[in-house]
Amino acid sequence: MQLHHVRVHRSDENLAREDQLAWKIAEVAVDPVEVTPEVTEMVINRFIDNAAVVTASLTRGPVVAARSQAAAHPVSTGGAGSSVFGLGERHSPEWAAWANGVAVRELDYHDTFLAAEYSHPGDNIPPILAVAQHLGCDGLALLRGVVTGYEVQVDLVKAISLHKHKIDHVAHLGPSAAAGIGTMLGLPAETIFQAIGQALHTTTATRQSRKGEISSWKAHAPAFAGKMAVEAVDRAMRGQTSPTPIYEGEDGVIAWLLDGPDAAYEVPLPARGEAKAGILDTYTKEHSAEYQAQALIDLARRFHENHPELRDGRRIDAVVIHTSHHTHNVIGSGANDPQKYDPTASRETLDHSIPYIFTVALQDGEWHHERSYAPERAGRPDTVALWQRVTTAEDAEWTRRYHSTDPAEKAFGGRVEITLDDGTRIVDEIAVADAHPLGARPFAREQYLTKFRTLADGVLEQAETERFLELVQRLPQLTPAELGGLSLMPRVGLFDSITAPKGLF
């Protein structure tokens, strides 16, 4: 990897185009380096993972709304159109990217990468796939595009913090998806450069979407970034230009939205000819909850199994979760969000409340993407009572490990201290989730397939499940016609009781 020094430049400094971060990203996108077998296997895993969580979200409100919007936009000229999960016909690619992006993101249940910033790199797949289907790309081109999308997003996330300035993490997704589409289509660096700038410029929004009373927009935000990336590439291909320098300009993103005019970053990007392996740094979720809750769910399950006395919440005086700054302030009591302790809060809010999540996982010994969030589950009196006695505290060592660049040290868990009514203290800790590559039960192809089949049960016909899994595992060999089959159709009758909401379209 090469480190690129990125800072704000005054307009009279005339920063050369080839020295701008957006251009350096474009150069990564046009590098024709081969995809390694290990990376190929992981890309297939993540296609399976995304499709798995889609099956579990097809009847949920935000997904139904987004799908109905896509259904109102027939195939645009210039291509064959793109598949929308749950619909049999094809639609305009930017709207397919939108609908499929919402379906992938709705349950907060797919892959993650955490460093200076947060991210869900699997959000790159819907827009890149939509363009591939529309323009008749083959599986190898799609694979190369997705590899670039992951690489660019992971590298930006390693270097540039957005949340520190309350900018939503999807500001790294617009550029990465644009770069991935550029790789897939074999576009020149100049076109990709302009698309990256436009995609970034249109996707810098505040983090209020993940604060307080979290709304359904949380699922839409990355889908919007993907849709903007598709549109940015279209404009750039038509010769339209972007604000330049988008990152380094004196009125640019870094100067006014991030660390300010004196800011400087060291952004890692692959050297020319170096394999793009960023996807191998990412990890998926076994549980449908914010990633920083994954390890703590596993620890709560361990408490449930090893200490049956904890299942009776009346015996617990207090639970303190000692954890990183991020976990304490984003999903813990350090966020100072009363909604994180509100039994009537939205699902989106509850999946960002570690006091709630830990309480339910401790009591039930499991975490389920529907049952664990059900209103009757959240409102159970014994759960509410214990929930109010669960707090988080920042621990400097867990914060240090969260930011460590050493994979053997990097941790997303914490130490939990439970005090019983007789003064007994039970203490245990966990560094990474069981499903993490360094966890107790790392996810491999078998686990991805099991996740898909489990979530597809009752949603897809068995034949549809096996059709998709057979197809996706041949991703690099897929013809353009076969690639169109990378979609899902639900069992007959699944949508019968669903009424699509009406809007403008």
Automatic annotation (TrEMBL):
<comment type="subunit">
    <text>Monomer.</text>
</comment>
<keyword id="KW-0456">Lyase</keyword>
<dbReference type="InterPro" id="IPR045337">
    <property type="entry name" value="MmgE_PrpD_C"/>
</dbReference>
<dbReference type="GO" id="GO:0047547">
    <property type="term" value="F:2-methylcitrate dehydratase activity"/>
</dbReference>
<dbReference type="InterPro" id="IPR042188">
    <property type="entry name" value="MmgE/PrpD_sf_2"/>
</dbReference>
<dbReference type="InterPro" id="IPR042183">
    <property type="entry name" value="MmgE/PrpD_sf_1"/>
</dbReference>
<dbReference type="InterPro" id="IPR045336">
    <property type="entry name" value="MmgE_PrpD_N"/>
</dbReference>
<comment type="similarity">
    <text>Belongs to the PrpD family.</text>
</comment>
<feature type="domain" description="MmgE/PrpD C-terminal">
    <location>
        <begin position="287"/>
        <end position="475"/>
    </location>
</feature>
<dbReference type="InterPro" id="IPR005656">
    <property type="entry name" value="MmgE_PrpD"/>
</dbReference>
<dbReference type="InterPro" id="IPR036148">
    <property type="entry name" value="MmgE/PrpD_sf"/>
</dbReference>
<feature type="domain" description="MmgE/PrpD N-terminal">
    <location>
        <begin position="20"/>
        <end position="264"/>
    </location>
</feature>
<dbReference type="Pfam" id="PF19305">
    <property type="entry name" value="MmgE_PrpD_C"/>
</dbReference>
<dbReference type="Pfam" id="PF03972">
    <property type="entry name" value="MmgE_PrpD_N"/>
</dbReference>
<protein>
    <recommendedName>
        <fullName>2-methylcitrate dehydratase</fullName>
        <ecNumber>4.2.1.79</ecNumber>
    </recommendedName>
</protein>
